Amino acid sequence: MKIVVVGAGYVGLACVGFTEWGHQVIGVDIDADKIARLNRGEMPIVESGLPELVAKGKASGLLSFTTNLAEAMKGADMCFICVGTPPLPDGSADLQYVDVAVASVKAVMEPTTTLVIKSTVPVGTCVRLGTASNPEFLREGRALQDFLHPDRVVIGVADDVSKKKLLEVYASIAAPKLTMSTASAELTKYAANGFLATKISFVNEIAAIAEKVGADIRDVSKAIGLDPRIGPHFLRAGIGYGGSCFPKDTEALMKIADLNEVDFEILRAAHVANDRARQRFVDKVLAATGPNPKLAVWGLAFKAQTDDVRKSAAIDVVELLLAKGASIIAYDPTAIDNAKCVLGDRISYAQSPSDCIIGVCFLLVLTEWPEFREAIRTVQSLGDCKLLKIFDGRNLLADLALEKQGFEYVGVGLGKRD
Ligand code: NAD
């Protein structure tokens, strides 16, 4: 099949995976600089395996990138819309990019092309725009892996031709393909993210109790996660969920509930609990450091293996601490350039984990980069500090017995053990 992918962001670039199943893919974006970089072989985002897959696709002749939508659409079998749906100030999804992209495609597409929305859009959007729905469930950091080996493929269609073509495009994969109405497909995406966000908030509230009663959230999470009705994932306590999807999708789902006069109290509570998880962590730091502390921060990306800082919990924590007069130096393996766009020179940036902590007594771990586990083991110099106190917002270093290395360690939900 000849597939046009509109929007070359995290989701659009994962669609390069279609080439692995023998389809031809043309990636289109209005950002000429992004397309020029892709055509030079430079990746505009950090995503494991993407450079290799792009190079392979280009070499086989199956992959190309352009800003010329009309040219790309000639003879296309399918077109996937993968543009952003950021939040509006009231929490609802901003559909301006989807509306413009769909209108531009419709202006040039041939009658036999099937138009599909992959972006996360409120229920009713696909009916309004006359498109099929194929929501994406990938996780940044393992986007290609998830795209190529999904748990399930959700196909929302109103006609048999679109259904047949969507089933055909995914014919190579073994995962269940669930066909349903476009409304059900759209709601499925929000339900999945809303549920996962709620699960994270639930465990963070249990972690708060664990701290008070002397329990260890890691033991509790492991034990409840072995119950197949609960499952082991998304039970890690920390500073709350972030990223480009969970915060905006929970807010958009609350908005959808409001519009339909459904009182979605659980989701509202999960949202509030998420802010509380960040605040609890900040309060703990400030209680130990006193006012205007000098802090080192490891991790700014919203999660490990990505450079994305959109709605990053790490950035939120930094902002809360800056508001309390903290001075901060931070290190992240991939996200410093993106973080600079948000934080600018309000903090300073280090070249390595060890540079970051020179002369600083308090270290905050805010993203779960595995390399920080190695970095802390090799910390030799404590500078002028008698003691480096570590506040770990991800419990990343909790099992390393850092006290024996002379550090004081504070995690999340780690009550004093018996
Ligand atoms: P992104 O911001 O990384 O990329 C969007 C791209 O679309 C940008 O490159 C932008 O220049 C381009 N664009 C905007 N208008 C365009 C137009 N008219 N024509 C061509 N290109 C245009 O966004 P993303 O993170 O890839 O997310 C895209 C959608 O997928 C969102 O709805 C998001 O909620 C959803 N989603 C994202 C993820 C994720 O992990 N990022 C996962 C699942 C679903």
Write the layout of secondary structure elements.
Elements: E1 2-6, H1 10-14, E2 24-28, H2 32-40, H3 50-60, E3 63-66, H4 69-73, E4 78-81, H5 96-108, E5 114-117, H6 125-129, E6 132-133, H7 143-148, E7 153-156, H8 160-169, E8 177-180, H9 182-213, H10 217-225, H11 246-259, H12 265-289, E9 294-298, H13 313-323, E10 327-331, H14 336-343, E11 348-349, H15 353-356, E12 362-365, H16 371-377, E13 389-392, E14 408-410
Parallel strand pairs: 1-2, 1-4, 2-3, 4-5, 5-6, 7-8, 9-10, 9-12, 10-11, 12-13, 13-14
The structure holds nicotinamide-adenine-dinucleotide.
Tell me about this structure.
The protein has helices spanning 10-14, 32-40, 50-60, 69-73, 96-108, 125-129, 143-148, 160-169, 182-213, 217-225, 246-259, 265-289, 313-323, 336-343, 353-356, 371-377; strands at residues 2-6, 24-28, 63-66, 78-81, 114-117, 132-133, 153-156, 177-180, 294-298, 327-331, 348-349, 362-365, 389-392, 408-410. Helix 9 (182-213) packs parallel to helix 12. Strand 4 (78-81), helix 5 (96-108) and strand 5 form a beta-alpha-beta unit. The termini are far apart. It has 2 domains: 2-180, 3-Layer(aba) Sandwich (Rossmann fold), CATH 3.40.50.720; 215-410, 3-Layer(aba) Sandwich (Rossmann fold). The chain is α/β, with parallel strands linked by helices. It has a 6-stranded parallel beta sheet. A 6-stranded parallel beta sheet has the order 11-10-9-12-13-14, with helices on one face. A two-stranded parallel ribbon has the order 7-8. It is globular. It contains 16 helices and 14 strands. Bound molecules: nicotinamide-adenine-dinucleotide. Nicotinamide-adenine-dinucleotide (NAD) is lined by residues 6-12, 28-31, 34, 82-85, 97, 100-101, 104, 119-120, 136, 138, 140, 244-245.
